[in-house]
Amino acid sequence: MSFYDQLVADGRAEPERFVRVERRADRAVVTLADPDKLNVLSAPLVQQLRQALEELTATREIRAIVLTGEDPGFSAGGDLRMMDQAPKALAAPEGTTDIWRWIRYEFGGIVRLIARSDTAFIAALNGPAAGVGLAWALNCDLAIASERARIVPAFGRLGLLPEVGTSWVLTRKLGYQGAFAFYAGGEHLDAARAHELGLVHEVVAHERLLAVADEWCERIAALPEHALRMTKPLLRAAADAGWEGSLAMEEFAEPQCFTTAPFQDAVRGLLQRT
Question: What is the pTM of this model?
């Protein structure tokens, strides 16, 4: 069995639960729940998280998913014990491609679910966030930080690259030089500084974090279903498109909205007020 296949098998065979899912009507809270290890991304946690998110994003009634960690941290990032085993894969026929499979299909599989699904993802950063855990949070549609949150750019210190979508997010939020400084400097950012840089949308009192995330779920639930499902991919595509391309995407998408009952009802309601 290859290194990758063994990681997947071990992760799926683990009986202890490291991910907690709470569903309520049109929303769900998904909590990374291995607090004694700062919610490190072990094979079992990653497998359980991916399964949970696949099920939730396939459920049409779920409009928003809050991703958070069990105190005291959001996630310490990748499992160092797993990384220590990685060189063993070099002696196998698959070589480094087996490590690539884990990064792409498991870590990357989760970030693709976050970005490509029609479901809104809200990261609720309750404490330190590093590595791939930080990458998942930054790739969510919205990031809210508790006053206890810390952004920890640890990849440079470990000799790694910005990973799992982090380079895309950082260059768009910070510009090239800002992203380079973030990587090379390795400075831990508190919640207020992360907000100043635009890495998180807002900072709230720790005890209010999930309540504020739920308020955002309420706002999202109030949107007509088609509006959310069409706007999320539009905005994500526009981030990589030029002005003309963005305009064209809007022009093709907008007429479809005119045919929906929610839009027509809203127009009639406004007309009745005039």
Answer: 0.90
